[in-house]
Each structure stands twice: as structure tokens, then as C-alpha cells.
Amino acid sequence: MKKFSLILSSLITLPALSLLGVETEVTKTKQLPQDIQRKILRHKIINHPILLFIKRKAIPFKSLRGHTDWIPSVAFSPDGSQIVTGSWDDTAIIWDVETGKPVHTLKGHKWVITSVAFSPDGSKIVTGSDDKTAIIWNTKDGKIIHKLEGHTDFITSVAFSPDGSQIVTGSHDTTAIIWSAQTGQRVQTLKGHESSIYSVAFSPNGSQIVTGSFDHTAIIWDVETGKPVHTLKGHKWAVTSVAFSPDGSQIFTGSDDKTAIIWNTKDGKIIHKLEGHTNWIRSVDFSPDGSQIVTSSYDKTAIIWDVKTGQILHELEVEGHTDDWIPSVAFSPNGSKIVIGSTDKTAIIWDISSLREIEQFFNRGVTVDQYELLESLWVAIQLKERIQPTPEQSETFKTFPDVIQQALRLYIKKRELK
To answer: With bands split at pLDDT 50, 70 and 90, how would you rate the model's confidence at 352?
Structure first.
């Protein structure tokens, strides 16, 4: 494709729309009342190639750079002001979200850090490692409080109970151990899986734990008795990530079979099976209000799903990461951002509120001039035309919200490279 020149710092281009018969349609639509115009164009634009592109583009908020190897685990602090990342470089880093700068580097493990979690009050962090230990850290000064020793193989996942009094760890030794966060002592061992445990999570009321395993199942456990309540069977390969919904009524599992499943916690039955990834799913999380879920995959995408329908809301082709694998993802406490950890040694905070803004804008419908502009841009790209906006077209471009202007510029830049 020819090199496009961006005139007037915008990305608008426009050959004659009559090439595709658009001019006639636009002329007819302009004769109708404005509210009817918007309704017509809303339906016409819903599957427009440009709109489908920009709906997938969250805006990068901050890049967190400091690790020297993969980042398989990420977590927001309860107040959203900090993020902790665990890395294959044997360290965890606490970051300031606003500045993107490191606050503390946690050094104490002898091997890969596989999992990280904040306590509910944010005062502690727990990390799990392939050195078979978990460590409880003081968030404020980055010092070690307790080292948890008891597993006989790699620790793959860690989680705090909702009241912060307990920690659960999952391991390749096929067990999960519940620990006292105050003393660092073992409270109970959960045995029942036939292979490695990859992920663990407490229910919101602390009465249950869910574990996901290489044996293709997830098990819901009663914390008090240590006995299984339900065994969730539906995946065809390893269950790599698990999460409870904020109200505890549902469980979400991700798998190496490229699917995710929403389960009913009460009876252990499948509510929705989510299909859309083309490679292993390695991390899942619920939004704080429980209406959405996010999955990250080795296919270099993160997908945000609607919990009620099981449908894809946004399929994020994550720009900014240079490697294909995205092993970790988490929602911020207010649901406006997600943080994604990658095998390219970086974590990027994404502003997903921009996606909602884009969705809301197009749901209201566009003006005839805005529709004409998007259609003309698409035509120019198909014809490999040079971008030369008229003054009127430049003014129309400015009527789009800033987030859409930014996404459109990204669209042009991406096409320029092809």
C-alpha cells in the first residue's frame, strides 16, 4: 500500500463517494429528520470494518517496565493505586499506577514467581514461586513477614481470603494448602485432584475455595471441612485459571482447550461456554460489578465478555506488547482499567473506559457527515488513495470524541504499514 500522508494532523481521506453509490444513500438520508437519520445510520454502521477495528482498541494508560523476564501474574491493590507483578526473573515489583514507577522490588524467592495477590486491606502481598514456597510481604516497606513452606513441588497460584486471615496456595504436587496469614502456619490441606493445580480462588464470603487443575477439572471445596462440594467437568484440557463472581453465585474457568466456562456455584452446572480465543487461555477475572469477565490468551488477545449473555463485548488486539503470549490479566477495582502482563517482560495498563465511550457513542448513532467520513475513509483505503481531507472533512473529524479520533489515527497508521 502507498505511503499515506496525514494532512492537518488528522487521518481523513476522501475520494468521491459516488464510486460505491454512497452519495445517493447519504443524499436520501439527509432529507429525513435527524433522529431518524441516526437510527438508520446506527444500523448501517454496526458492522462497518472501521468501527469493528476501533471497538477493539483500548487506549494504553501506562507501561510498566522493569522486569527482565516474563510476567505470568498481575494484581491491582484494593484501592487501585498500586499494581504488583510477578516475574520469571524471580522478583515481584510493586508499581504506582498513576506514575507507572516502581515502589518496591520484592526479592526473596530463589526461582520464578508464578502468582501474586494483595490482601483485602492492601497491607500485605503474597507471592508463590517455583521454589516451592510462598512469601507474605509488607506492602509498605517491601519486607518479608512470613515464608510459607510445605509444598513438595512448584507453587502455581495464591489467593487471600476475603477477610485477609487466610491464604490458599495451589501446587504441582496436586494439593492446595490453606495457611494462617497471621502466623504463616498450615491450617488445612485440600486433596482430590489427580494432577497439578494451576489456579486457586476464595469465594467472596470465604466459605469456599475453587481450584483448577491439569486433570481438566475444577473443584469447589468447603473451607471449614476441607471436603469437595462439586467437581466441575466440561473442559477438554487443563483448567489454568479460576475466579468467583463478586456475589459468589458463579465461577469462571479458563482452559488450555481455548475455551472459558461460566458455572453455577450452587449446582456446579454450566451456564455459558465461551469460545473465541485461538490459543490457550491463561488468565481470567470478573469485573467488580460482576457484569463482565476478561480472558487473556497466548493468541495475543484479551477478550471482554458479557456475563449475562456469554457474548463477546470487546476483542482487544493488544497493541504495545511485542510478544505473542499474554499470561495474565486483572480488572482494576473500579472496572475502568485492566492490567495485562506479557512474555515481553512488560505489563501495560489499559483504559477500557474508552471502549465503553466508543460503544455508547455509536449506539446513539452518527450524523450523516460522520457516516460519510467513515465510509469515505474506508473507500480511500480500499483504493489505496492518498489522504487529502477537505476543510469540511477536517471539521467533521473534530466532531468525533477524542477517543475515537485517537483510534482512527491508529487505524490509518496500521494500514500504512501494510
So the answer is: confident
Greatest mean pLDDT among 66-75, 298-307, 316-325, 344-353:
66-75
pLDDT in tens, 184-213: 999 999 999 999 999 999 999 999 999 999
**Residue 134 to residue 73: CA distance in whole angstroms:** 14
Q: Is 271 helix (H, G, I), strand (E, B) or coil?
A: strand
Q: In angstroms, rounded to a whole number, what is the distance separating the alpha carbons of residues 133 and 119?
A: 18
Burial classification of residue 281, based on how many CB atoms lie within 10 Å of its CB (0-12 exposed, 13-18 middle, 19 or more buried): buried
Residue 393, number of CB atoms within 10 A of its CB? 21
CB neighbour class for 276 (10 Å; exposed up to 12, middle 13-18, buried from 19): middle
Quote the cell numbers at residue 297. Answer: 490468551
- Indicate the pairing of strand 208-213 with strand 312-317: unpaired
Q: Does domain 62-351 have CATH number 3.30.565.10?
A: no
Which residues are paired to 153 by β-bridges? none
The b/e string for 38-52 (b: 16+ C-beta within 10 A; e otherwise) is bebbeeebeebebbe
The pTM of this model reads: 0.81
pLDDT of residue 41: 61
Element (H, E) at 24: helix 22-30
CB atoms inside a 10 Å sphere around CB 157: 26
**Helices H / strands E in the chain, number of each:** 7, 28
Q: How far apart are CA 105 and CA 203, in angstroms?
A: 29
- Residue 240: which of 266, 212, 261, 264 has the closest Cα? 212
Cell of 395: 471539521
Contact between residue 177 and residue 186 where contact means Cβ atoms under 8 Å apart:
yes
Q: How far is CA 5 from the centre of its chain?
A: 34
Neighbours of 333 (CB within 10 A): 14
* 25: Cβ contacts below 8 Å, ≥ 6 apart: none
Ranges 16-30, 106-120, 214-228: which has the least confidence: 16-30
Where are the chain's structural domains?
Answer: 7-56+358-416, 62-351
* Ramachandran class of 216: left when φ > 0, alpha when ψ lies in -120 to 50, beta otherwise: left
